[in-house]
Amino acid sequence: MSTEAMKIRAVPGTVDVCLAQARRMARAQWLAAVAMAAGIAIGVGVLTWMGSTGAWGRSSLAQAVGRLHGALQVVAFLWPMMVTWRDEAPSRRTYHWSQPVQRMRHQLVRTAVGGAALAAALAAGGLAGWIVGALVQGGMASGGGEVFVASAGSLGLAYLLGSVPALLSDHAVLWLIGAYAASALLMTAWPALGWPGAHFLEAAVTHGRWSLGRALGAPAILSGAFGQGTATEHPEPWSALAVWLAVAAAGVIVAVSVRQERSGAT
Amino acid sequence: MTDTPGLLIELRSGDPRPLYVQIMDEVRRALALGDLEPGDILPSVRSLASELAINPNTVAKAYRELESDGTVRGRRGRGTFVTPAARPETERPRITREVARRALRDARRHGISVDRLVRALREEAGREDRTIASMSAHAPEGEGP
Amino acid sequence: MTADPSHDAAVRSPAIQASELCKSYGKTPALRGASLTVPEGAFFLLVGPNGAGKTTTMRLLSGLDRLDAGELRVFGLDPAAEEARVRAQIGHVPEDGTLGPAPGRMRVAWLLEHQAAYRPSWDRAYEARLCRALEIRRDRRFGDLSKGQARRVQLVMALAHRPPLLLLDEPTDGLDPVVRERTLALLADHLSAMPTTVLLSTHHPHEAEKLADHVGVMMRGRVHFQGPRSVVSERVKRYRVLLPESGMDVSPPISVVRSRRSGRSASWVAWGAEADNRSRLVRAGIEIRSVETLTLEEATLAMLSEEES
User: Cα separation of A199 and A196, whole Å?
Assistant: First the structure.
């Protein structure tokens, strides 16, 4: 018997795993990424064109991004479900889990790679939009660098929040819709019913300095996309972003550590 | 010394003998018939295992057993060779004993005594010879071997 | 792992050591205290009916499910604590023929490339040989493959990186007889190239009979028998006997697993050393017509039917 046979096989390195997942995502989901990028490019281009013809004045890319932000948020929320974990809801994730990588780590890698794909699509779309806008307007106004940072942060937040149901549930879309509906209901019902703590709830979720609404709406606020009103109330959304990014990251880590086994008979 | 010996091993699925014993018997049979000669090389463990779709350990065991009773000898890196001592004259008695043992076992199962068996063997042999002779006598012309 | 210089396989630490494994899926118990020992380099055939717990055992070995109770070691490693390292030693062909949700649009060649990225010991040349031998079209999309073709791809995925341990869960299921034979020949060839420990579960013991040197019989979540093949051949035989006129209804003096009777004749498949059983039968006045060895399939069938009754 040769000792060659008894050699313990090595585990793949983290870099190799990341690359493998990136390659896989590129092959499997390139269409989604391209569509996304094209959508952004068109959106930015259109908005910039409207800006040059309408009442918004010559806009910068930052302003266009600020206006597009709502749509981008929706995409970022849905990206985990529709791209990162497409066709691989927890009940169908056995192949992913049967690789020689710690389950928790493997899911984190995939989440990160998915986020990177989203970022790449956004960047590509933004660049293309900038070019279109510049052509339409004959040059784009500069400035608003902090808008891009805020955008990255809040879209990242949306992506992480959307990752939690995608990691845990076979019906992520129901969870997302349900969470949105529940919170909307809560926000309207709670103060209407005069329950105590309504003020606190508002502060935490919609208007407060540390609120989720502030975190998600950061780019819009900063770019003053919809007028200057909201920008003067609470000048900076960074604290909200930081807090909620931490919360969402913690949520993702909890989600990947939950052991999900196949239930049912052999 | 031949490169490709006339050794064709067939394993029977219903055979009660362990696989390695079957392989050993087939090697001995080839020796007894003269298909294998002293100095011939046996198929490698790997090729035989692959061809017969059996565990290579089984082939290795058969070769080890054959080596321990002096029929073959393994030379490192070169293969397993038939020893000069293994000649039809030495193998035939061994095979004969095996065949006899099998016949006795069968006879016992059917409650046939040794004497009856021997008598029946002689009668059957004679009958077979006569049948073969009559078949050759009636064979059409021009059919060569 | 003990550092024993002896080359006796029984003394070397086993590839798989499982003690009293318990696992339930919800309310359904799949394993109720199953114990299993697979020596290094052994070809272990695991036989048992549906629901016996064979697939659950393999999933636990791969770290895909977690134990409820019991202890499990693969090459001395705990699949729950070191899941990545354990899975790196294993090539697993799972029970279901599909490769899970790998996107149907992916081509087989890409799938193999993806798998290769996770297995540093992947042998591309061997992969190509295996694909040729199993007639796998590498340009076909995975979603277009039939069950049998998907199974063959799974085999390549498990074999191409030459893992020290192969877990094969009904690997020839869904394959036609010609491909079955070719698969078994491939396995034999794979073993010759490098000593590998194999745990193969099947409904058809006769198929892997020529490859197996260890056998385990599993039923209802427990392993009822396990050991080297030679032990089965020596300890389970068919005794064809003639019962005495006076004591036809007497219960057999040997431990019979399967019995057939007609008049005074009986055919008993029984446990125990032959010499032992012979003396017992003689003492009971029972005439022995013949003692026959059984094929692996006959022996395992007999053991399975005993547990049922």
Answer: 8
Are C80 and C67 in contact, with CB atoms under 8 Å apart? Answer: yes
Q: Where are the beta strands (DSSP E) in chain C?
A: 16-25, 28-38, 43-47, 69-74, 90-93, 165-169, 197-202, 214-219, 222-228, 236-242, 256-262, 265-271, 287-293
Distance CA C223, CA C21 (A): 10
**Which residues in chain B are contacts of C289 at CB distance < 8 A?**
109, 111
- C62 has pLDDT over 70: yes
Handedness of CA C218, C223, C227, C231 (dihedral sign): negative
Supply angle C-alpha C176, C178, C179, rounded to 5: 70
Largest alpha-carbon pair distance within chain B? 55
User: How confident is the model over C198-243, as pLDDT tens digits?
Assistant: 999 988 788 788 899 999 999 999 998 899 988 888 889 999 998 8
- Beta carbons of B49 and C188 less than 8 Å apart: yes
For chain C, say whether A55 makes contact (Cβ under 8 Å). no
Burial of B83 (0-12, 13-18, 19+ CB in 10 A): middle
In terms of Cβ atoms closer than 10 Å to its own Cβ (0-12, 13-18, 19+), residue C9 is middle
Please tell me the distance in Å from C102's CA to the nearest CA on chain A.
8
Secondary element (H or E) of residue A255:
helix A238-257
Whether residue B104 lies within 8 A of chain C, CB to CB, comes out as: no
CB pair distance less than 8 Å for B13 and C290: no
> What is the token pair recorded at C79?
């699949």
CA distance A48 to A53: 9
> In whole angstroms, what separates CA A34 from the centre of its chain?
17
Cβ neighbourhood burial of A173 (10 Å; 0-12, 13-18, 19+):
middle
Residue type, B78: R
What letter represents residue C307's amino acid? E
**Residues 6 or more apart in contact with residue A82 via CB below 8 angstroms:** A32
Which ipTM did the prediction report?
Answer: 0.82
Helix (H, G, I), strand (E, B) or coil at A76: helix
| Secondary structure of residue B87 in the 3-state scheme | coil
DSSP annotation of B68 reads H
Q: What is the pTM of this model?
A: 0.84
CB distance A27 to C110 below 8 Å: yes
Residue C109: which of C132, C142, C64 has the closest Cα?
C142
